[in-house]
Every structure is written in structure tokens, then in C-alpha cells.
Amino acid sequence: MLSLRGVSKVFQIGADRKVAIRQIDLDLRSGEFLTIIGSNGAGKSTLLNLIAGTVPPTTGTIRLADMDITGVPPHIRARRIGRIVQDPLAGTAPSMTVAENLALASKRGRRTLRLGLPSRMHRRIRAQLEVLNIGMEDRLDCSVSTLSGGERQALTILMATLAQPEILLLDEHTAALDPSNAAMIVRMTCAFVERLGLTTLMVTHNMEQAIELGDRLVMMHKGEIIHDIAGEAKATTSVGELVDMFSRHHIVDDELLLERVC
Amino acid sequence: METLLIHALEQGLAYGIAALGIFLTYRILDFPDLTVDGSFVTGAAIASLLLSRYGFDPFSVLVIAFVAGAAAGTVTGLLHTKMKITRLLSGVLMMIMLYSINLRIMGRPNLSLLRIDTVTRLVDAAWSGLGPVAILVFITILAMGVKFALDLFLRTELGFALRATGDSETMIIAQGVNTNTMKVLGVAVANGLVALSGALVAQYNGFADVGMGTGTIVTGLAAVIIGGTLIRSSRIGWMTAGVLVGSVIYRLAVVLALRYGYVIGFQASDMKLVTSLLVILALVAPTLRERRQRKVRAC
């Protein structure tokens, strides 16, 4: 489905070179749900940016199904790749209404001079919002800026999956939410992924979540994949085991220990 | 006094069309575009040249001015999106280039429309039954027409994409829209409106002058800000109505200041300074308010 071959990314900041991704090979089957963990600066977000196309790779090729998408600009890739980022403010257009946002998301690609939100679309949008089951179907004409972070992220999930992409990229999309909202968003995400059979890549800082969700887990460190488990191995692994793995690479940091204690 | 009021309304609505363009870039697209100081004159210059030299129909020159302004805006948009020049500098560069281009168009620093059939003269003659408000009625119809056309455009799929581009680029790219195309389109339409306004104002005043565009961005911002303060709404129709109202109120203030300003020692030449100070005040007001609130909370 998705295949990365020899992909690396070097950021040139003035005279400094920072290798964010180091010669990564990665293959995902159709429908596979991959969780990605790693400390700060491991290259998790850069990896998703490379797949989304917002950052061009320094070397290597990225293929989606049978198509080489390495040089394809992000807005074209978006027809096949849905994406949700951490910041709930970034996933929606706050000055527009809930209905307008969904109308915007119901179509990928070329925009015309047809009405953006014809009245016949209202019923469909209402039905789509009812699926979320958080009462947003009664707030169609509210500006998105009046929604809470959790509500916005729920709307973002709906928008990212509305045009039926093949791949879903989740970049710590629950990290900015309080625990109960985060749990709701995780439940919602899983429901959508299952229903639409999406191939999913999810970056998370929460190791328990990474073990619990999905069917494959990779650990990244300094731009490389240092651990890749699936099936039985993933099901039986524990947070402790993962932390040990980290420490073997001498990469235990405060943040990691903190997460273990919590 | 009555004629003073009519003049203020006429000018407010005529300049209001330019303010609608500035609203589109500044508020909707989040693109502070300085091209307008040049494209306003471009509209006026082209209209005056075509009217005085080539005897064009005064209504069609409004359309031609729109197209010319849109072309100028397209260049600004491309400077920013293709050549990666900052938004402010792209606008400044285009504005400076337009200064030379406008002089080329006119052939000299100003063109008179004396004894030429301009829209205002034609309307005045055709609608003489309306008496002194004939021109006001015409300009109102034109400005409202532009307002509703802009409202409608912002409700199309393209308009949605444009609004979302100003809101969150991450989001709209993820929704499969090329933000560069949207920026060029938005800046083009905005400058088209500004040039249309320039062509109208030139015919209204009876001349085009190469310096008549100086401060268009500031007076336009003043209108946008006054309108946004008076009419607080997130609905497009109300926002654009606010821009026109803001422009009229601004012109009223200008007319009154020019008429009675001498009482407090105000000179006509102080106008741009005072306007800019007002815009600065309006722009920093939210920040100041926020800072004060934060201080209270810290106590």
C-alpha cells in the first residue's frame, strides 16, 4: 500500500546540518494500523510530513499503491491521504461554520464557482455529524471558533475521512486535549479507521496507547526505526519492555521516565 | 450641509469598493497587500486614458480597469508564491513598479476629464429627475452590486477555499487545495476591485492624478476596521456591509474635518497622519486590552 525506500531528510539550518530521517525503509499493508513512538526529535513528525508531502525528502522514494508520489505536491496527495495534526486550531477553518467546514471537506481537489454549501447538502451534513454522537448536528451554523478543542478535533476526524482517503496520518492528534476528550477522540478515530478500512499511521507519546491500538508498532530514534513489532509480539509487549528498549539505546530521558511513572 | 452629506456618501461608497478589495486581502486572506496604492491609480489612469484619448464608453472602462487591476494583483501574488518574496515586500515592489507604469499609461502626471462624458455626467443627465441625488443613487447601486457579487463569490466552492486559506493553511492543503493558487486569485480579485474604485473616483473627480493612490491601503483599512467595530458579525454579508458603512463614516469624518477642522488648528495636509494614527490605534487596541487583562489576572 505505502512503501518508503531509502528515504532520508536533512535539514540545512544555516551552516548546520540536521539529519531528521536516516535511510528509512518502511512498508505498510493495506488496512494496517501502525503506531509510532520515539523521544522528541526522533523524526516521527518529519516522517508523517514526508508522507503527506509538506516536506520533500532529501533522498529516497515514496510509493502509494503502485504510484511514485515522491515529487507530488501535498494538495494533490491529499486526495488520497487524510491528515490530522496535534493543534486542534490547525485542522479546521475557525471563521467558517461547522457546515461550511464539512462542505469544504466533502470534496478534494478542484474548486469551482458552484455554491459551496447548497441547501440540499444540509441533510447529508447533518447525518454525517450525527455519527459523531456529540450533538454537533444541532450546531451546523455555529462558527467553528466557538467549539472546544475536543469538538474541533472530532470535526477534523470527520473532515479528514469524509472524502474517503486510502491513508490516514495522525500526528499526536490527542496530545493537546484533556484526558476525557482524548479518550473520546481515540474511540472516534478507531471507529472511523475500522469502518473505512483505512491504512493508518499514528504518532503518539503515550506508550500504553501505542501498544493498545493498532496492529503494528515501530519505535524511532534519531531518524531511524530501531524496533518494529507486530501481531503476537506487539500484543504481549509492555511499557516496561519498551522503556528497556529505549534505555538499551541510551536514550532514556526525563520525559520517558515520567511517562513510565504515570 | 446637505450637499456636504451627499458628497460624503458618494465618496464613501466609491472608495468603499476599494475598501471591499482591501477587506478581501486583509481580513479574508490574511495578506496585507500594499499593491493597492498603485492599482487604484492604474484603474484611474486606464479609465482616463481610454475616455479622453480613445472615446471609450464610460461604463466599459470600469470593467477594463477591473481587469487591469486584477493583472497587477496577479503579479503581486506570483512574486509572493512563486518567487518566495514576503507578502509585504511583494506588494511594495508592485506598488513602486505601478508608479512608473501609471505614468506611462497617462503620459504625464495627470489627465483631465474636462468636457468628457464620464459615468457621473451621463447619470446626472439621464436621471435628472432624481435631482441632486442622481449620482448618489448610481454609486449606491454600483457599490451594492459589487458587495453582493463579492458575497456570492465568497459562498462558492472557490470562495470557501479562499476563506479557509486565510484561516488555516495546514487544513486547506490537507483538503486538497493549492494555497498558492488561492492567494494569487484573492489578491487579483482584490486589486481588480481597487482599480474599479479608482476608475470610478477619477470619473467622479473629473481627473486622474499619479499621486491619487497614496494612502489607499490606510483609508481602506480604516474603513474595514470602523466597519468591523460597528457591525460585529462572522457572516460575510454583514462583514462586507460593515466595510461600506465604515467607508462612508470615514468619509463623513474627513469631510467634516476638512470643513470644520480649522477650529482646532487642523490642516488638510494633516489628514494622512491622523488617519494612520487612528488605524494604529485600532490595530493595537486589542493587544493593549489583552495585556491589561493579563496584568489583572496576575495580581
Describe this structure in words.
The complex is a heterodimer of chains A (262) and B (299). With 262 residues, chain A is an alpha/beta fold. Chain A has helices spanning 44-52, 74-77, 98-105, 121-132, 149-162, 179-196, 207-212, 231-236, 239-248, 254-261; strands at residues 2-13, 16-28, 33-38, 59-64, 67-68, 81-84, 167-171, 199-203, 216-221, 224-230. Chain A has a domain at 2-80 and 166-174 and 198-261: Rossmann fold, CATH 3.40.50. Chain A contains 10 helices and 10 strands. In chain A, strands 6-7-8-3-9-10 form a 6-stranded mixed sheet, sandwiched between helices. Chain A has a 4-stranded antiparallel sheet with strand order 2-1-4-5, covered by helices on one side. In chain A, helix 3 packs parallel to helix 5 (149-162) and helix 5 (149-162) runs parallel beside helix 6 (179-196). The longest helix of chain A is centred in the last third of the chain and has 18 residues, at 179-196. The two termini of chain A are 36 Å apart. Chain B is mainly alpha-helical and 299 residues long. Chain B has one domain (2-212). Chain B contains 12 helices and 2 strands, in the order H-H-H-H-E-H-H-H-H-H-E-H-H-H. A two-stranded antiparallel sheet of chain B has the order 1-2. In chain B, helix 3 (60-81) runs antiparallel to helix 4, helix 7 (157-167) packs across helix 9 (179-205) and helix 10 (216-230) crosses helix 11 (236-260). Chain B starts with a helix and ends with a helix. The interface between A and B is medium-sized, with 41 and 24 residues.
